[in-house]
Amino acid sequence: MADFDLFVIGAGSGGVACARRAGGYGAKAAICEDSVIGGTCVNRGCIPKKFYVYASHYREEFEDAASYGWSVENVRFDWPALVAAKKRELTRLDGIYERLLEDAGVAYLPERGRLVDRHHVEVGSKTYSADTIVIATGAWPVMPEVPGIEHAISSNEAFDLERFPRRIVIVGGAYIACEFAGIFNGLGAETIQLYRGEMILRGFDEDIRTTLYEQMREKGVDLRLETNIEKIEREGERLIARTTRGDAIETDQILFATGRAPNGHGIGLVEAGVELNRKGAVIVDQWSRSNIPNIYAIGDCTDRLNLTPVAIREGRCLTETLYNDNPQMLDHRDVPTAVFSQPEVGTVGFTEAEARAEFEAIDVYRTSFRPLKHTLTGRSEKVMMKLVVERASDRVVGCHMVGADAGELIQVLGILVKATATKAEFDATVAVHPTSAEEFVTLAESLREAAE
To answer: Would you state the torsion angle of the CA atoms of residues 404, 56, 204, 195, taken in this order, to the nearest 10 degrees?
Structure first.
């Protein structure tokens, strides 16, 4: 008889959700973790990032207060105070995760786990047997092979810098790079963002990409496209970033946000016969099953759709299937997501380019406007909203937004896209006025010539 019905390697959000629900259904479950419980999202990603995004908004809020009759004086930002507050809250959350596992009867082993074979996991000096094993080891930042890279940091270290950098260079054009550019710029650092491509946010709708690029530059981020770092030098307390364009940028900190790779090295996957793709991700089927029938994988280590809520849902679907006689698989289509850049991005469904390739004909509805708040502040900040509609069915197949609260709005719009709502149903919905969101139900004229 096996020691456990289920053994999860990796106590991030997906792994914890999987083990906890399995325990709730009566399975004898265990989970191991060689770092901090909660994984990337709780400790090095979503949660601390959102705290820092909130903090970075205050500079503009203080500046705008005078336009609404407020007098705000002697404003000062205290980086160590923010870092300390973040640490206190994450410690509290980590404790909650441990209690949730304990309450579900899950054995938590705070050590590194390694597959010995298809039914055995080595944790520390002990080896445990399990009927089912789940790999939930997430992903890890990748640092490029650039001379002097040891002087740079990844997003992992950015939350706990001893000193706030007066100047920072951020390398990358995906969502993590854009979010940190907004954070450090908002907190008052002289921020330069370098991206080797021709436009940021590759894979997003083109109107999102261009709008965010323009708005980030408007807010003060020195965003340079088709530029990369080819060498880093240290001169005393300062760093020199030498770029592919021949520039020498003097800065206090360099942050690379140029990609993440599945975190499955050194845990016995290859030795146990688990098939990996060229990136090192575990290859799984629609049920999250690997090529070995009793070994599953969920979350970023599978490199399917690397989002915390997706990992959680994959874990829950797996336990519903295995321990609740309720077979479930996650539909990875039409998953809403947000980028907590400044301004925010929200998106769900097809981009305009994807819809053109998928459907015979589409209609595109788009608007760009200055939100009501800034008619008094005088800021030139714009909101962009866009609907992509399949013409034959009138179904809204894509919603895209750049602007304040885009993440909040896209959650609700994601329900409508998932429910196959039509443009006529959007039009029949009475607007809430005055809001930015009302534009989604008042978009009247299609940019039909762009869809032909």
So the answer is: 150
